[in-house]
Design the sequence.
């Protein structure tokens, strides 16, 4: 009887043990996961969802871990079964053909029921998490109105029993230990509020007020970002959440509720800047408490000098960056409603005038 040689495709590649390459590839894929285990996620990835600091975040990461590990178990069992079958029924010259099987009721019932059960378990925990993370606002909650702008964030705090409102931008201040109830809306397109370490994201939708409730636990500065594509500078629509002790928060709020500081010396750069800001082009779009400015297009600047960043968190709030921003905002943030005010345009502010404006804005503590 003539012996049958194996078809070319069934021969092992020269120089490599069969099965070694897929194993190597899988190992390489797992390496970054393993090496990341010992890292400080928060300093390396400040917008991490894997280091929640609120109950809401913990519920969400719990749900993620449940589905992840169920998936890992199913994946390992599937690949182990596949590996076993590939090995057991591998091609061998001269071996008889394996028995052909057409349907196995026990197997089919098993692989229908087991996944259905797994999905049912995930569904139970998911529904639980949905109810746990969407409670009605507690009576002692701090209400903050959040308004999505093009492309920055406005935050409004009712004070004096709701008769007055503190308005600030891009840096949302909250106290630890008190539930925070955000009332989210937009005055233009869709945005999404997302401070990953505080928990879930929530969309800001036109003609609707959405709600997000969480309780900050640890004082600190938490990075956030608009998480819904909203136009040219979506990626530049950042924010910071600053969690204070209750006293620190009250001090901040009291300061914000006070009118803007007056220049102490009427001949200083600060005073010259104030005149330019309150009577010039800035007044059309900005408010500074205690001055006649009433514009509502841009951020409230009453205590601008206290903010850590400018232009919705994209650069540090210092004299050089502020100068560059006023001179040509759209160059730093494409599509910004803040126009170019200096440089090579008609009626431009001179660099000297911008220096005075910077001095005044920085004095607004
Ligand atoms: Cu706002 Cu993306």
Sequence:
């Amino acid at each position: 009887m003539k012996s049958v040689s194996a078809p070319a495709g069934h021969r092992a590649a020269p120089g490599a043990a069969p099965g070694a390459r897929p194993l190597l590839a899988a190992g390489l894929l797992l390496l970054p996961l393993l090496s990341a285990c010992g890292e400080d996620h928060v300093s390396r990835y400040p917008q991490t969802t894997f280091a929640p600091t609120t109950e809401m975040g913990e519920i969400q990461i719990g749900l993620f871990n449940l589905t992840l590990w169920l998936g890992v178990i199913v994946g390992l069992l599937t690949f182990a079964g596949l590996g076993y079958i590939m090995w057991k029924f591998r091609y061998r010259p001269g071996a008889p053909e394996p028995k052909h099987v057409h349907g196995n009721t026990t197997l089919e019932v098993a692989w229908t029921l087991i996944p259905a059960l797994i999905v049912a378990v995930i569904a139970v925990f998911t529904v639980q998490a949905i109810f746990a993370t969407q409670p009605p606002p507690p009576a002692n909650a701090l209400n903050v109105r959040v308004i999505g702008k093009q492309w920055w964030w406005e935050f409004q705090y009712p004070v004096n029993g709701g008769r007055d409102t503190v308005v600030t931008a891009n840096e949302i201040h909250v106290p630890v230990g008190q539930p925070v109830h955000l009332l989210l809306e937009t005055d233009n397109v869709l945005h999404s509020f997302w401070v990953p370490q505080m928990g879930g994201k929530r969309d800001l939708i036109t003609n609707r007020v959405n709600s997000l409730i969480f309780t900050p636990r640890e004082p600190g500065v938490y990075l956030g970002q608009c998480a819904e594509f909203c136009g040219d500078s979506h990626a530049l629509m950042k924010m910071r959440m600053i969690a204070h002790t209750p006293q620190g928060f009250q001090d901040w709020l009291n300061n914000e509720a006070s009118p803007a500081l007056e220049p102490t010396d009427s001949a200083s750069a600060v005073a010259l800047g104030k005149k330019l800001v309150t009577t010039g082009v800035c007044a059309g779009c900005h408010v500074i408490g205690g001055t006649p400015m009433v514009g509502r297009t841009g951020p409230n600047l009453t205590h601008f000098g206290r903010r850590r960043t400018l232009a919705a968190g994209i650069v540090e709030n210092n004299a050089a960056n502020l100068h560059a921003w006023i001179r040509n905002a759209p160059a730093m943030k494409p599509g910004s409603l803040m126009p170019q005010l200096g440089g090579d345009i008609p009626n431009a502010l001179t660099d000297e005038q911008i220096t005075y404006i910077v001095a005044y804005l920085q004095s607004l503590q």
The pocket of dinuclear copper ion is lined by residues 148, 151, 191, 226, 228-230, 234, 237 (CB under 6 Å). The first strand starts at residue 142 and ends at 148. The two ends are 98 Å apart (CA to CA).
